[in-house]
Specification:
202 residues, 7 helices
Length: 202
């Protein structure tokens, strides 16, 4: 006698009036933790400042995998301040969309402040945004040494006046943890730059 296959996405009644639910996630399950609280708070801060000033921001990210853009887009009214974004994870994508040349690819030895600021500057020009965020790092779990070790990231914000960069080492090798941390560092730098501009310090 053939056994029935699994029923996905439905409630199945079992003896004793107990109910078991399939592993198919509900809408609440899939959105409960998105964006992560740290990203949500920073994105909301940036959104409020940019919206009030009627300014915009573009994004060029790599190892964060689109989390910077996703966090900014999670705030209602994002079309007022989000100019667009690029996830430039591969060197080929940087050639196609990041303003790189074959010489840039041939000489690549890992992220540096100059490289990340350059990606952000290209995005700002292409999207005609007031600001642009750049991010590139090694999420892990494997990697090299120095600027290619797991947990190392460079973030940048390019402004009408210039650029601000920062290198951070999270000290962990877990890939998903680092992706969120990298996005957090990028958004944190954006908020710092926006706040400094508000106070006339930039």
């Amino acid at each position: 006698m053939a056994l029935p296959g699994p029923v996905l996405g439905k409630l199945v009644l079992v003896p004793g009036n107990a109910r078991t639910q399939s592993a198919t996630p509900t809408m609440t399950d899939t959105t409960a933790a998105f964006p992560p609280p740290a990203l949500a708070a920073l994105a909301a801060q940036a959104a409020a400042i940019l919206t009030e000033r009627k300014q915009t921001v573009g994004v060029a990210e790599t190892a964060a995998g689109g989390l910077v853009s996703a966090a900014l887009l999670s705030v209602p009214g994002a079309s007022a301040y989000y100019a667009g974004g690029l996830t430039l994870y591969t060197l080929a994508s940087r050639l196609a969309f990041g303003g790189w040349t074959e010489a840039d690819r041939a000489g690549y030895r890992g992220p540096t402040p100059e490289i990340v600021a350059g990606l952000a500057a290209h995005a700002r020009t292409a999207l005609q945004s007031t600001y642009a965020i750049g991010e590139s790092g090694t999420a892990g779990p494997t990697g090299g040494i120095t600027n290619r070790k797991p947990g190392y990231v460079v973030v940048a914000v390019v402004t009408p006046e210039g650029e601000v960069t920062r290198a951070v080492d999270t000290g962990v090798a877990d890939r998903q943890t680092n992706m969120v941390r990298f996005a957090e560092e990028a958004l944190k730098l954006l908020v710092e730059v926006l706040t400094a501009a508000d106070k006339g310090k930039l």
